[in-house]
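Sanity check

After download, print the first record. It should look like this:
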Amino acid sequence: MLHTIMPHMIMPRTRIMTTRMTAMTTVMTTTTTSIVITGITAIPMLMTTSKPPAPPRRRKGVTKASAAIPASAPDAAALDTGEAAALYRLMTWLSPAFPVGAFSYSSGIEWAVEAGDIADAGSLTDWLAAMLAEGSGFCDGVLLAHSHRATSRRDHDSLREIAELAAAFVPSRERQLETSLQGRAFIDIARAAWNCDGLAGMVSACGGAIVYPVAVGVVSAAHAIPLPATMHAFLHALASNWISAGARLVPLGQTDSQRVLARLEPVVVATAGRALGASLDDLGSATFRADLACLRHETQYTRLFRS
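Expected structure tokens:
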């Protein structure tokens, strides 16, 4: 009885196990097939995406450098080589970092602060506007313009007369020291680092002392730097140095100093225009208080500056 029942009971289990194994084999085969198929289809996709894009077609007459400039930037290459060189030199020569010692002079501002004439940003602005338009700023601009033109013409005789007039046209001993030492330093450093043909001859033509505006005019003309650009850069540097002295003496913060410089912008522009059109007969100063400040600074008890 047992032998009859057991085979009958075992056979269904065997068939069930066989069926399950067959099903698992089918599933594994299907999964393996799917993986293999996926791997095969993924390879051409990677190869397609890693292919470098074709280079854009370049229009005839367009260089590689100009093609990189967007069409919306028409002024990207506005400066030619000569203009870029002139701008670079002006920015260097008239920078506070150019070693002419401008930081050690105040042009009488130190006495004006002690006397109470300059006490804040507003009074400093008024003082410097007068110095620029009616005082030493305008006179220096006129001397720069005429020395530049004489150098450009290689007119040695006129240049000597201008240099002598400029050296004599100084109201005090300290101002004489200030402008002559800066002029000599400017010439020496320019010849050492930025020498050019004809510069030595024009310096010799000046004769004796060369004051600062004449030195700037001679060097910039020898390098063929346009006069209007030189004039504006010079007056900007002059105003910036005066503001720097006032900021240390009042004292003023950096933001107030920049506000003063911004307010002097139209004065610098107008003074440059007048100086470019003025003759040597137009030289003259109406800033008597500033001239007295330069004189009284010589006997001032405590001083930070040399003028």
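If your output differs, re-run the checksum step. Summary of this record's structure: The two ends are 135 Å apart (CA to CA).
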